[in-house]
Amino acid sequence: MVDIAILKEGEEIRVIEDVYDFNQAKEKAEEIKVSAFGIISGMLNVLDKSKGDTIELTNNKKIYVPFWYILGQGTFEYKRKTEYSFNVEPEVIAVRIDKKEIEVNENESKLRFAAEDHCFESATKTILQSALNEKEKDLDKYLEHKTKKIKSINDISGESVEILPVDIRATFLINGLIKEIYKPIHADKVITEKVEISKLILYYRPVWVFEFTDAAKDKKRTIEVDAVTGEARKVERLFDKSLVGKIFSNQNLFDLTTEIAGNIIPGTGLGLVGVKLLKQRRDKKKKIRKSKETKEAYKKKKEEE
């Protein structure tokens, strides 16, 4: 049975710190507020100077948007019995290998001998994904910025702060990650068969939200300004009052052990030996590169033991 380990020390909640404060973000929003109401409305506001600027900031809040960063590594060390063969010259009747003389098959001038392969494979997989039911690209750019570790999301809650709830749970993502890392092996003896989740971090990125109202036309528009990148854009996001003050516990976010053991292992066939043969034919260059990577990984493993 494969050993699945989720390191508790790798479980964290981190908040990406602001690069743009409220005033700087407000300036960004002010720059695009006219266009947010449409070209015609914007032109009318510009042309009708007598009425002045009828677009005013009527509401604002800060939201924290969650996304997951998960890092997993797989380590597989095993032994398998293999028969090797190679052609020899017609006059050769036996070959001595490591003090053992092996006779040549006289019908085909080929030497066959039994051996045991000592194999080692490793794999790494990273998941960087929104914790909401929506797709977000380029989340890796946020990892370059300064962050702070918090004990609970209560540390960032407050007046005019909305913390968006986690819709996609870590268990679901880890399930898929394990299935990608794990590969059934053809082995007679398994030494190590382990998948380790070393990083399980829930990040929250800050966003400023500004609601503008055009009193003359009784229209409202919402503009978001990314507090990290400074990017400003019109959005349809509403101010969800039901989320204010809502509490999400760390236990709900990270209590995975029972769920992983109960749901993932039976459903994936992990730990089966001999389910599939390793591919026998591989591109020569790939084999050389893989062999080099394997030796380096095995050497590192031994140094850490």
What is the secondary structure topology, with strand pairs?
Layout: E1 3-6, E2 11-16, H1 22-36, H2 39-47, E3 55-87, E4 94-97, E5 100-105, E6 110-130, E7 147-150, E8 161-163, H3 170-181, E9 189-214, E10 219-226, E11 232-235, H4 250-254, H5 257-268, H6 284-304
Parallel strand pairs: 1-9, 2-9, 3-8
Antiparallel strand pairs: 2-7, 3-6, 3-9, 4-5, 5-6, 9-10, 10-11
Structure description:
β10 and β11 (232-235) form a beta hairpin. The protein has one domain (3-304). α3 packs across α5. The protein has helices at residues 22-36, 39-47, 170-181, 250-254, 257-268, 284-304, and strands spanning 3-6, 11-16, 55-87, 94-97, 100-105, 110-130, 147-150, 161-163, 189-214, 219-226, 232-235. The chain has 305 residues and is α+β, with helices and mostly antiparallel strands. It contains six helices and eleven strands. Strands 1, 2, 3, 4, 5, 6, 7, 8, 9, 10 and 11 form an eleven-stranded mixed β-sheet that branches.
Q: What's the helical proportion of residues?
A: 10-25%
Quaternary structure: single chain
On the 0 to 100 scale, the average pLDDT is: 79
Give, in order, the helices and strands: EEHHEEEEEEHEEEHHH
Which stretches of 5+ consecutive residues score pLDDT under 50? 241-247, 261-282
Helix segment count? 6
How would the global form be characterised?
elongated
Query: What would you call the structural class?
Result: alpha+beta
Evaluate the radius of gyration: 30 Å
What percent of residues are in strands?
Answer: 35-45%
Alpha-carbon distance between the two ends:
22 Å
Let me know the number of strands.
Answer: 11
Q: Give the biggest sheet.
A: 11 strands, mixed
Number of domains: 1
